[in-house]
Design brief:
Elements (H helix, E strand, L loop, with lengths): L1 H22 L6 H8 L3 H7 L3 H29 L5 H16 L2 H13 L4 H28 L8 H20 L6 H22 L15
């Protein structure tokens, strides 16, 4: 019985996320969700207080996934003693493919993109996860890489923007509304790889070999 209940609850959340990512939170009703799942509206209220409760559950999952990925990155980066170009590129490609293109993350981001225009909380969260957090993290990483002697001394705020802007633009160009296909992923990866290679060559003090970030792919 418990397995069936968990399955139904998860199905409600997955269906709601699909609809929210296509139409936005405001435009979707409990009736829309129940109809898509194939259950009565009253069944949804057995699992959730209301539509906002479903949304809050999805946002909580989003924050947990984001936090876990960040913690894993921090752990791996703290162990690295060398940073060569392939490892540096791998980190950026992993961020695009394993985070931004994670099926659930992508749907949540699309939902926030739509909802930000009518919901100040959604706008604030979108700004945080797509701009503030990545820029802050990148700035911190570059400060550490400069301190360790991997990169030349430079304005780390400017470096963070220069590093992240092409990745964000590529994400928007290929994946903000379009389906994720093998072709689009390959094209996006090629663009980001070229950008990261040029960035590394511009700021690195020298090519170094040693520990890599391969474990970030796992």
């Amino acid at each position: 019985m418990e397995i069936n209940e968990n399955s139904t609850k998860q199905k409600i959340k997955e269906t709601a996320l699909d609809l929210f990512s296509q139409k936005g939170f405001t435009a979707v009703s409990i009736r829309n969700i129940s109809g898509k799942v194939g259950i009565k509206e009253s069944t949804i209220y057995y699992y959730f207080k209301n539509k906002q409760d479903i949304y809050d559950n999805l946002i909580l999952e989003f924050k947990v996934i984001t936090s876990t990925i960040q913690e894993n990155f921090d752990h791996e980066f703290s162990k690295a003693t060398q940073v060569d170009k392939p490892s540096f590129i791998l980190v950026g490609i992993t961020f695009l493919n394993k985070y931004l293109l994670n099926e659930k993350i992508l749907k949540l981001l699309r939902m926030l993109m739509i909802e930000q225009h009518v919901n100040s909380c959604a706008a604030a969260l979108f700004r945080q996860v797509m701009f503030d957090d990545p820029l802050r993290q990148n700035e911190m990483v570059f400060e550490l890489m400069i301190t360790k002697g991997y990169f030349k001394k430079h304005d780390t705020k400017a470096m963070a923007v220069e590093y992240y802007a092409p990745i964000f633009l590529t994400f928007l160009r290929y994946f903000s509304t379009n389906d994720v296909t093998e072709t689009s992923v390959n094209e996006a990866n090629a663009i980001v790889t070229t950008h990261l290679s040029n960035f590394y060559e511009q700021y690195s003090i020298e090519e170094r070999k040693g520990d890599s970030y391969e474990s970030l792919q796992k």
